[in-house]
Amino acid sequence: MRLRGSRSTPACLHSRPVDGIVDLVGGETLRAAATAVTAGVAVVSVADPMLAAQWGGSGVDRDRTTAAFARLADLTASGVLRPRIDHVFPLERAGDALALVENGHVLGKVVVEVR
Question: Residue 43 pairs with which residues in a beta bridge?
Fold first, then answer.
């Protein structure tokens, strides 16, 4: 929900329920995101599996990453997993995409298309 080095977690994280948290940074970033955790919310952390376990979550086994991404792709293609996409930018506007994320006014993913 934010970039490494950012000083705050966007308010949008707490504006509506979340289905899950996938953490790539750990530490304070995961702690801030975990405040949105309610019963039944999955927490997975690549960076800090022990901290994720405090909320009933788990870490990522890097040997299974390829299989996990394939499964996520299948779930997305079948419509079971529906990522929320807030904005899509062409590569030449990547700076605009980054600015939008840094401002914290995003309700979903910001995609930068590379063609």
Answer: 21
Tell me the per-residue pLDDT of 37-81, one tens digit each, with 9 for 90 and over. 776 777 888 777 887 887 777 776 666 677 777 888 888 899 888
On whether the pTM is more than 0.85, the answer is no
- Residue (of 27, 72, 71, 69) closest to 52 by Cα position: 27
Query: How many Å apart are CA 33 and CA 10, to the nearest integer?
Result: 10
The DSSP code sequence of 70-82 is HHHHHHHHTTSS-
**Domain boundaries, given as residue ranges, for the chain:** 1-82, 83-115
Q: How much of the chain is helix, strand and coil, in % rounded to 5? A: 40, 20, 40
